[in-house]
Design a protein that fits this description.
The complex is a heterodimer of chains A (about 350) and B (about 375). Chain A is of the alpha+beta class and about 350 residues long. Chain A has two domains: about 40-150, 60s Ribosomal Protein L30, Chain: A; about 160-325, Phosphoribosyl-aminoimidazole Synthetase, Chain A, domain 2 (Alpha-Beta Complex). Chain A contains eight helices and 14 strands. In chain A, the strands form three sheets. Chain A has a seven-stranded mixed β-sheet. The longest helix of chain A is centred in the middle third of the chain and has 18 residues, at about 105-120. The radius of gyration of chain A is 19 Å and the shape is globular. Chain A starts with 16 loop residues before the first helix and ends in a 12-residue tail after the last strand. Chain B has three domains: about 5-65 and about 175-245, Rossmann fold (3-Layer(aba) Sandwich); about 70-170 and about 270-300, Rossmann fold; about 320-375, no CATH class. In chain B, about 40% of the residues lie in helices and about 15% in strands. In chain B, helix 1 runs parallel beside helix 10 (about 225-240), helix 2 runs parallel beside helix 14 and helix 6 (about 145-160) crosses helix 11 (about 260-270). Classes of the chains: A alpha+beta (about 350), B alpha/beta (about 375). The interface between A and B is large, with 39 and 55 residues.
Chain lengths: ~350, ~375
Amino acid sequence: MRFKDPQIEMSHGAGGKASRRLVEGLFAPLLLSGSSDRLADAANVEIGGATVAFTADSFVVRPLRFPGGSIGELAVNGTVNDLAVSGAKAHSMVVTFVLEEGLASSVLEAEVCAMSAALKRAGITMVGGDTKVVERGKADGMYITTAGLGSPIPGVHIDARTVRAGDKVLLSGPIGDHGITILLARAELDLEADLCSDTRSVLPMIEAMAAQAAPGIRWMRDPTRGGLATCLNELARDCGLSVELNEEEIPMRDQVRGACELLGLDPLHIANEGQFVAIVSPEFADIALNTVQLNDGGEEARIIGQIRAEPAGAVVVNTRYGGARIVDMLVGDPLPRIC
Amino acid sequence: MRYIDEFRDPELIARASEEIDRLSDRSRHYRIMEVCGGHTHAIYRFGLKDILPENIELIHGPGCPVCVLPMGRIDDGLAIAREPNRIFTAFGDMMRVPGATGSPLEHKARGTDVRIVYSPADALEIAKRNPDKEVMFFAIGFETTAPSTALTLMSAKKQGIQNFSVFCNHVTIVPAIRAILDSPDMRLDGFIGPGHVSTVIGCRPYEWIARNEGKPVVTSGFEPLDLLQSIVMLLRQLQAGEAKVENQYKRVVPWEGNCAALKVMAEVFELRPYFEWRGLGFISQSALRIRDTYAPWDAERRYSVPETRVADPKSAQCGEVLKGVLKPAQCKLFGEECTPEHPIGALMVSSEGSCAAFYNYEHRKSLVTTISAVA
């Protein structure tokens, strides 16, 4: 369907339905090569007989630093994670900075240091970049874009079309930490909570899981903007099956639950920066789960649901009381409610 | 989590639902209206319909402030805010609600300074921090939110803050319930009474419903167990042939209401002779306006208001859905032309609107059930 929205609004960048309309209605038909590949977090490209995974991601976040991380760290981890959930190990990266006139050099240096540390942790090299400066007031301090190349993790083949009814939904840890941390760090809501962003590279968890369960891994995604609900709705649509979640199995910190209750937000729509969700065939589900749980950041991993044939294309959450509800993609930005 | 998990305990919920099963008369069809949009949202979110017997039908009431606001009021508010050096502030609930000229978020994309606030006091703070701008708070809500608007106006007056005003759309719940009961095509057995509104007005204002109309009312909380317990209380009354007002939400709602909140409301607001409700039409003495003593902070007096009147699209049946005469899915536009992404009626915008709640949590599930029933 052609993109017909009259103007760009914030919702087009929020990762939900509007973002999808923009990508599928404008970018993909005019920019992407003819292949009808599903839109994944990274693309696989053949160069001289070798397959490399290729991705890019831009980072705009306010405030630049927040409990548990900062924009520089996000910019490295985000691209590493996009590659990892596409079944690739990040190899090298390039970066571009868009800096706002008047930005304190110490702020920039702190972010460059944060990037350097994240690169070291992930074991990858930065091989180039570019810098632009815009007038004061034209950017929120700084924007960072990273692009990454990666090599396939042996044995892992990610394709929504291989997902089957009966497959398990594995989630690496508690949801909502990043999105709620950012919301509170903006200090517009006069709420405080002891909470940190979950920004981290999920590559070690995925590599470990692949070493034990590669043939069983059918699909993966990192539930960033739009949250778990949005990426699972994309999966449901792409595979033509239903994703069934069991509400009580979905790990979540009390601070996130409390903030969501208070603000009328659905934690399933809140962004994460250090989690992944994988669809694993039933025979590999236990070993995949056990392996993830043994890794840093994966201690609270759980099987949170399963794939069913019906209702096709939908995500259904079983509540703890024997009821069920449909969870749709995020529409627009998550906005706090009052009443 | 305290005060939440206790009211979501699966075992207690199972017991409450057994009790409902036991109390309900199989030969009878119960129509119970939950007045409050928050209740509608909770009913869908927790999947409560799935655990109620089929002969208990929940009808969604008019208690969603965003849904009952006529479209023209949004256009009026945004027309004022479009002028240079003005800042439009409102709760997040309002941001996607379409006026004829677009929603606040669409106006923001076109250049109007639109900001989300969590409290009217935050809007006043914005005014203090931007002395060279005029800040308007677009106030919505029933008696739940009216006291905080009143307090903010009192504080603006006391501090002598000149660059702040309120565009007041506050409405009152009781006239809306009366309008529903006066509707000839309506047959109800009882009410799940408003929760948050009652924290302010108490339970007394509903006594006429029991006395004159013979319908039981149970003021209810918003957790699954609250709602189920309220249904149990209603069924007990119906079984005993009684009609009285009961308070299930005692942990929050005092029978007499919140005197301090009522006092500040009376200080700042007076009743409008009449006000238009979306879907319900003009209802007399159903809304609040700012008193003369606060005139300098009343956006309707401070600025020229275009007084836009926008008729709802003829094909949209928001009024019937709002009154509970139609179910969301029975509206001709539901799910096709009118969706949460492209809402035509306000009931599709707010997550408390019965159409959005039904669409988000139930719609596709029910499609599947219908299909399999046909098959």
